[in-house]
Amino acid sequence: MSIRLRQGGLSFYASDGDGAGTVSMEAYFAPGGSRREQMTAAFDAFAEKSGIDTYDRVRLFADTADTVFVPDAVVGDAVPAEWLARMGVHLSPDMKAVRTEAYGGVCALFPVDTGVASWLADRLGHRAAWYSPLHESMAAFRRTEASGDCFVVYPTQENVYISRYGTAGELSLAEVYPLHGAADMVYYLSELAAGERNISLYIYGDRPVRYTDTLKRYFGRVAAI
User: Fold this and answer.
1) Quick one: DSSP state of residue 40?
2) Which of 7, 101, 108, 170 has the most CB atoms less than 10 A away?
């Protein structure tokens, strides 16, 4: 099962009982309510919808523009909150800093609501592991035959994750930005590409068609992965 934490709620995803499809559900937090109670209600509702209430492994994704990506070789034993503060992300009293395990040599650090993180730890324990949506797009890129200097773009409901790969397939850039529409994506990519209009763009996710036509007006090679 995968759970995506986003602003104001959760998204659940799991294979159905036959393993032939995917069951999903959106849950939203009510303002002022107990996070623990709302998390319990959301899990129970998803268990009823999916017919599955036990999972051997749960992937937790935090979808937030306050994510900082750091090479595993650099982050070392540094305190996640200190890394975030260095990058201008300061934690409010009700937030805690989380550091993911490295994937592709990259760790993600991000703030998570303390009540939510505590509930997940109590409920899921060692079965759960934290990730960033960027790690999803990195895995998707590795599964393709794409090569050469390129960008991989992963738009979610609220943000866009952008990574750049060199000619040998090495990751050279990883960023996340707030996303309100296709114009935002064009602006971010134009700044990062520094005028390179013929660079290849690969779009990952469940909504690439929404952005493909717009991006093709500005960049020469655009494809979904």
Assistant:
1) H
2) 108
Give yes or no for a contact between 201 and 222, defined as CB atoms under 8 angstroms apart: yes
Segments of 93-133 assigned E as strands: 95-99, 106-113, 128-131
Alpha carbon separation from 21 to 13, 17, 142, 204, 216 (Å, rounded): 10, 8, 23, 19, 32
* Residue partners of 177: CB distance under 8 A and separation at least 6: 65, 159, 160, 162, 184, 188
User: Residue 62: helix, strand or coil by DSSP?
Assistant: strand
For residue range 41-66, list pLDDT tens digits in order. 998 999 888 887 777 889 999 999 99
**For residue range 64-107, what is the model confidence (pLDDT) as tens digits?**
999 999 998 887 777 888 889 988 999 999 899 999 989 989 99
Residue ranges in the chain assigned as alpha helix (H): 35-50, 72-75, 80-86, 114-124, 133-143, 182-193, 209-216
Q: Token pair of 161, please?
A: 């994750």
For 207, phi and psi rounded to 5 degrees?
-140, 40
Taken in order of first residue, the domains within the chain and their CATH numbers are: 1-131 (3.30.420.250), 136-224 (3.30.420.260)
CB 94 within 8 A of CB 32: no
